[in-house]
Each structure stands twice: as C-alpha cells, then as structure tokens.
Amino acid sequence: MRQFIPADAIDLAAPSLPPHDGACLHLPQCAGRDWARQAIALVEADASRSADTHMITAGFTGLRGISVYLKDESTHPTGSLKHRLARSLILYGICNGLIGRNTTLVEASSGSTAVSEAYFARLLKLPFIAVMTRSTSCKKIEAIEGFGGKCHLVENAGDVYDAARRIAAETGGHYLDQFTFAERATDWRGNNIAESIFSQMRHEPDPVPQWVVMSAGTGGTSATIGRYIRYRNFSTRLCVVDVENSVFYDSYKSGDRKLVGTQSSRIEGIGRPRVEPSFVPEVIDHMLRVPDAASIAAMRVLARRFFPVGASTGANFLGLCWIASLMMEAGEEGSLVTLICDRGERYTDTYYSDDWLKARGLEIEPYEVALETFLDEGRFEKPLGGNGFSF
Q1: Where is the Tryptophan synthase beta chain-like PALP domain positioned along the sequence (predicted)?
Q2: SS (H, E, C) 215-265
C-alpha cells in the first residue's frame, strides 16, 4: 500500500525533503474551507431572497418645507434593523476562520441582535447562546428560543460581556461580540444600509437628505452611515440620539472613551453603560440626549399615525422632530431620514403597557401632547422644548 504524506505537513525549510521511496504527496483536503463556502452560499442566498426594506414617506401638516422619510428595517425576516448586523457578523466570523462546522455562537445582546443571530445560526445548523439582562422583553426571549437558541440571563447590563466571553471559552465557541465588531464587519463603502437610503432617495424632490437621524446601540450603524456620507461626499449631516443611563452622549461631548455608567438603558437596543468600541464619534455631526418618557411617547404617537413601533424608533423620531423644529426656525427646508428599528409587537408587555410605565414612574402624556401639536401645527411647547433635551 502506498503511503500518502499531506503536503501541509512537509517542512520545506528542513535540510532535506522526506524520501519518496514510493510515498505519494498530495495537497490537503481543506474540509473546513468547503464548509465555509457552503455556509457563505446559504447566507448569501438568504439575502437574495429578501428584498430591500421600504422607505416610507410621512406627511405632517405642521412640518412646512420638511419632507420626512422612515426607513422601515422591521421588514427584514427577523423583524429588525439588527438583521443586517447579524448577517455581517456571521460572515465576518466565517471569513476570518473563527466559525466552523460545529462552532457554538455566543452573543451579548439586549435582544434584537440575538434574535437575528439565532435565525442565522439555525440556517447554518450551529448552536447559539444569547447573554442578556433579565429585564429583556419576554417576546424577544421567545423569538430566540423559537429559532433554536438558548438564553443566559444576567442581572446587570455591564455583566453581559464577561459572561459571553466565559461561555464562548467553556464551549470552545465564538463570541460574535457585536459591540466590538459592528463597525468593522460591515463594508461602509457600499452594499449597506447607507447605500440603500441614498439609492431609494434619488428620485425624491430632495434626494440628498439634510440630516439622517438615528440612535446608537453598538454604534456600528451610525459609523457605517457617517463614513458612507463622507466617502460619497454628500452634504448630509448625521445626528445620533442618546437616551437616559447611556454614556454615549457624555463621551461625545467630553471625548472621554473610558466613561462607565451604573445603570442599564430602559430603551431596549440603544444606549450603553460603557463606550462601545464600535461607537465612532468622529463621523457624527451632532448628538442629542432625550428623556425615556419622551421616546416612549414618540413611539406611541407613531403607533397611532402609522403602526406600532419599538421605543428605539420613538427615540429616532423624537430626534428627527427636534431637528425639524430647528430647521424651520432657521428657515431651512429639505428632507430628513430616520429608521424604524423594529415593530411594537415585541413590547406589548412593556412600553405599550400603562401599568409597566406607572411602575417605573414614566409620565408620557405631556410629551405625547407636545409631539402631536408639533406635527399638526409646527410648534413645540414645554416640556418637549424645555430642559428635557441635551445638546
């Protein structure tokens, strides 16, 4: 029987090559590469089956000269903006050789990213474990488990990172780490949400938006949009909205990336107790910090006028309204774009529950009235125009 010597086991720097004496050399089979090619094909096929998300026009009588557009990311197969990020993180892991045929995928998440990652894990037949705070919406936990994932719950948001790293090490798995890799896993030059926004806007009366307004969770999407705006040399400016119990706004103002908070954000999906590595303040033109009650009020206003959305979308829309008010005050006109991050069905037992709001001392009615007045009449009254906002 002839002996086979794998070529990748030969040391060409050795004094002499192994004797042939009937042995047959052959190249390695690269079984891992074969799996990676199949996995990437599955992920790309899934993307091809999904049409781009819709851009909704929103007319408000009070916003004179201002056109509002809502990029509806809830139409992704997993129902949120995080579907794009999950796909990018999975591809990033495969292409860097970090994810293989039997790799357990682990993520630290406030919910939506984990839902999307669980979807892709099932597609690739890989185990998935999500590390989340115990306060995460039950609907999100059910969605993760529905895709075959498991949930590991911790008490504090600051504990998710170490717990995810520990579980990945114990299982020999891969920590996807959205908070570190979000801004580098996505190609900011094209084939991303920013390119989609500007492509869909090109036939509108004001095709180049004056502002894109959005909130930050990992900071990855704002980094992608900010970089793309600069790369394509658009005049568009980027405003990022932050929420209570988050350190992003304070870091942006002070330049201190080592800030650490002591509480968790009440608005799922956005706001963080530390400055995440994927947060890139240099590509942001302006930041706002808004009250949680006002974000939830804006969410409910949109629910009445369009359809139920989540509280992160409320924060986005609130920021857009504030930018619109300043534009009108300055006599400026043009288009504004923000994101619908997910639908409200996931929050029926939290943000859409009056009992849940009351238990947390969140009074939203004054903000609702102020927002409705602004959208219909174009003017803000307190409390929205008071000290609830930071600039």
Answers
A1: 61-342
A2: ECCCCHHHHHHHHHHHHCCCCCEEEEEECCCCCHHHHHHHCCCCCECCCCC
